[in-house]
Amino acid sequence: MKGDQLGRRWQFRNIAPCREPGGINMAWIAGIGIALFLFFSIPRQVFALLGILVIGGGALFFFMNQADRRRAEVRERELAQVVMRASGNGTACADPRYPVMVEVTNRSPDRTLSSVSFSLSAYKPSYSSSVMNAYSLSSDRILKPGETHVGCWSISEYQRPPEGYD
User: Rounded to two decimals, what is the model's pTM?
Assistant: First the structure.
């Protein structure tokens, strides 16, 4: 097959029905017209229906907001039970290829920790700009309730702090 035939064979086509320009605008105009007709012909029933819709929408919003808040509180409590500590002083990790010590403690009384994802940032004392960042680090070490794991992590060359910051 020639290159141009191959390109034509795999063209993507829009299979959704096409609307004429202005078709959606006409639907809005028709809907507003029907709503005005109903409002002027039976105003009490229209106000009652609007009231029911507003109260129902408000109740639905309230209950969904409360459910989201409860889920967020449960997640915060679970995250507070995982304690992480990092150090780069070299006493815990003697191998220079793995200079950063990361300690993970599962303080949950009844839940097992199956994995943890984290990012590391290093700062020069009394400065707010980071001198080293390592993103998207993870460990799949399984920790039972109350267990602690200490691991030594490497730093790639592009994450390494500049000279004089070690």
Answer: 0.56
